[in-house]
Amino acid sequence: MTDHLIVTDEDNARIITMRRPDKKNALTQDMYFAMADAINSAQSDPDIRSIVISGGAGVFTAGNDLEDFAKANTSNDDSARPMAATQFLKALADNEKPLIGAVDGIAVGVGTTMLFHCDYVVAGSTATFSTPFIHLGLVPEAASSLLAPRVMGHQRAFSMLVMGRTVTAEEAREAGFVNAVVAPGHTETEARKIAREIGGLPKDAVALTRKLLKPPREDVVRRMDEESHHFGERLKSDEARNAFSAFFARKKKA
Fold first, then answer.
1. pLDDT by residue (tens digit) across 189-208?
2. What letter does residue 118 receive in the DSSP assignment?
3. CA-based Rg of the chain, rounded to a whole angstrom?
4. The domain spanning residue 147 has which CATH number?
5. Distances (CA, A) of 185 to 50, 58, 126, 174, 243
6. pLDDT for res 155
7. What domain range is 67 assigned to?
8. What are the respective helix, strand and coil percentages of the chain, to the nearest 5?
9. Total of domains in the chain
10. What is the DSSP string of 160-202?
């Protein structure tokens, strides 16, 4: 476990809270491993009826810690992504419990794409969603190229995933991947209410209906693997190398 993740079980729900405020909850390898473990271990616990992923008040997550990708960008191996990130994505694909997202503030990169695996998403009114992979010369991940068009339609998905445009909380609600928009600072409280509501429903009927609503796991994993292959190739490309160099140059000047 890492100090940057808090996992608690209460009211038949597992609450996974990212806690790295000094880095806007940017995800490290340890955080990925811990989140994957929290999701996987919940599967065999009959008392856990749903899972909530939160960033606490003020920020959801700035996405990947780009130091990880800078290292992968200069490595000579063929790994497409750090193993920890892959484990987390596979945990999302394998998860059979209702998954609730509580988004306050920014949700960048995987902070947005993980939400397409959620069954219910609560967003603060000032929340924003962005997938700036294209600006780094990369492609989307987390099977978002499959799930996003399914949820929000091709044109909206194109605007977000290909053009890299930021989406507001209200736009996300209109697009269909956010269920409710609430006042900033109240997302986790509202997500816990949803978890309690789900916990009061017939357990087996919920599980079966959720499964019927979701695309087959095999399709999701196949798309994750396809994205990962392209992601790895792009990570070694001149476009990506130049984009990363420019990003870190701007960061150094800031």
1. 999 999 999 999 999 999 99
2. -
3. 17
4. 3.90.226.10
5. 21, 7, 10, 21, 34
6. 98
7. 5-185
8. 55, 15, 30
9. 1
10. IIIS---EEHHHHHHHTS--EEE-TT-HHHHHHHHHHHHHTS-
